[in-house]
Every structure is written in C-alpha cells, then in structure tokens.
Amino acid sequence: MERLDKFLCDSGVGTRSQVKLIIKAGRVTVDGVVQKDVGAKIDPLTQTVCLDAEQLTGAIRLVVMLNKPAGYITATEDKQDKTVMELLPKELQGRGLNPVGRLDKATEGLLLFTNDGELLHRLISPKKEVPKVYYARHEGTATDADVAAFAAGLTLADGTVCRGAKLQPLGPGESRITVCEGKYHQVRRMMASRHMPVTYLERQKEGNLSLGELPRGQIRLLTEEEIQALEEK
Ligand code: URA
Predict the structure, then answer these.
(1) Is 185 in the pocket of ligand 1 (CB under 6 A)?
(2) Interval 207-228: pLDDT, tens
(3) Is 138 within 8 Å of 175 (Cβ atoms)?
(4) In contact, 92 and 62? CB cutoff 8 Å
C-alpha cells in the first residue's frame, strides 16, 4: 500500500505540495471514485488512479513473465490477430507494459513485459547478449556437422549472418538451441538452413529466468531480486 500523494509525485504529476492541491481540488479518482484525502492508502498493483480521467502508472517498476500460448502475436495491438496484451490480467492492463523482444505467433513459452523503457532497451540490445534457450521439435535429426555449423555462426538464405549459437541434439527430431540475439524468426530460419524445419518451438529460458512451473497462458510478476539479476546481465 502507498500514500496517494506519493503515488502522484512518483508519477511525475508535481511536487508534494502541488499534488496536495490537485488532490484537494477533486481531480484525482481511485477506482473511479474522487479521493480528496491526500494521505489515502492505495494499492498501485490492483487499483486504478486517474488524474483528470487519465490513468497514472506510478513509479512502480513492473516486470511480468508470461508463458505464451501459440496463436497470439507479440504486438500491443492488431486488427486481425489476438495479441499477447490480451493475456495480461485486467489489473495489469493500461500500466504501460510492453513486450521485451518478441515470440512468433506459433511459438510458445517465456515472454517478458516491462513498464520500464530503459530496462526494455537494455534487454533487447544486441550488445547485451542475453542467452535465450529454446526447445524445438523439427524434421530430421541434428548431427555433429549441424552442431559445428551453429557454433561457427550460420549464414541464412537471405545472407543474414548469425552469431555462434549452441545446438544440442536431444534425440530424433528434438533439439535445444541457445542464441544470444533476436533476429526475425531466427531459430526457425537457422534450423531451416540446416534442412531441419521446426514444427514446434518453445522458449524455456532467458538469462537466468526460466518458465519453471508457470502454466501455459499464465503470468507472474518477477521479484525485485529477479529484476536486479536481469539488470546485472
Ligand atoms: N526464433 C524464432 O524463430 N521464433 C521465435 O519466436 C523466437 C526465436
């Protein structure tokens, strides 16, 4: 729980004394009800605070992990397809969350969201080289030559050069792939370039984070320790 005046200050509305006047003027609502008590306690995670009908997000930094099901595109809105934003629970909608990187419509697994623009850019920066681990089912079976070609860095059909990546054959038609970049359809295109088209793809890990027991279609908030660990990557 947090004081309403502090929440407004953290949202960049103004100084404590300016915020006090604004609240007393009846311009602030909590869950749709005007709140004139500057010291009222609010829960930024579950309550909606608006100034002149515009929602405030506060300074609370959110990082959310989703276990994405197939069939949703990674976008904030789309005319045709369902987007991953629809999988966020109501209390997390409109809090400035954006997906960190992207998973294809057919790909399942770990997708992060954050309302912290700086953290988002750091995590998707190619300089960061955050390793991402995928489980793939595919045609054919990976050989030692495929493992070596991944490690050396593949050149895709359109000339795109990929950095060295790790291919671990798990059995006939199954592999684990670790990449440190996020080019368009990267894993599918890398596997296709070795004549092993992917039939199923799941992201299982990103940096130190793994899906764990999170059920498909569900979300959880990262802890402050997990966020710190991401920052140190
Ligand atoms: N590589 C892909 O091909 N697709 C994804 O969704 C993620 C990585």
Answers:
(1) yes
(2) 989 999 999 999 999 988 898 8
(3) yes
(4) yes
* Ligand 1 binding pocket includes 108 (Cβ within 6 Å): no
CA 178 to chain CA mean position, Å: 18
Single pTM value for the model: 0.78
Residue 194 Cβ contacting ligand 1 at under 6 Å: no
Q: pLDDT tens digit string along 121-171?
A: 888 887 778 899 999 999 999 999 999 999 999 999 899 999 999 999 999
d(CA 38, CA 36): 6
Annotated catalytic residues are 104
Q: Hey, what amino acid is at 72?
A: Y
Sequence-ordered list of residues with C-beta below 8 angstroms from that of 56, at least 6 positions apart, any chain: 7, 8, 11, 13, 49, 50
Ligand 1 atom 7: residue of nearest CA: 103
